[in-house]
Amino acid sequence: MILSDTQIKKQIAEGYLITDGFKDENLTPNGYDLTIESISMEGKEADLKGIVDVPTGTWFAISTKEYVKFPENIAGELWIRTSWARKGVLASFGMIDAGFHGNLTLSAFNTYRKVEIPVGETFAQMTFHFLGEGSEKSYAERSGNYQGQRGIKL
Predict the structure, then answer these.
(1) Residues 86-111: pLDDT tens digits?
(2) Sequence-distant (≥ 6) Cβ neighbours of residue 82 within 8 angstroms
């Protein structure tokens, strides 16, 4: 089951899902639009403010302003906002494991023409899914490679 905006707000009030950087205007009926905190192109030092011009054929990564904290019974899923896809930005995202907490690093590729990406703009939508039952082992116990990350982690 995907969480509604009402359920998302309830989880946030209980100290889960988004613990830092939450903006009510980013809430959607069935998810939350994540904000760009910093941008790194082709592994170079991250830009932390302003507008970043991403040339055609360039890979880049962003870090989210939001710090997420998933309980053991909720997983997340990421989708690029269609406004970026319409500009030629492709991204491949996955699931956010139950029990994960940290900033998210999102990877993308500019395919079409130079695109201007403002730091502070929304980039991807995150949806939340209740697990059918609790996991046997948490993210931290399974791997925990990115647990607690801040900023862009490649």
Answers:
(1) 999 999 898 999 999 999 999 999 99
(2) none
Q: Which domain holds residue 113?
A: 5-132
Computed from CA positions of residues 29, 30, 36, 37, in that sequence, does the dihedral angle turn out positive or negative? positive
Cα 146 off chain centre by: 13
Measured CA angle at 4 (ends 39, 25), to 5 deg:
45
Q: Is residue 115 part of a domain?
A: yes
The CATH number covering residue 31 comes to: 2.70.40.10
CA within 13 Å, CB half, 74 = 21
CB 105 within 8 A of CB 124: no
| pTM as predicted | 0.91
148 lies in some domain = no
- The secondary structure of residue 127, as a DSSP letter, is E
N- to C-terminal Cα distance for the chain? 31
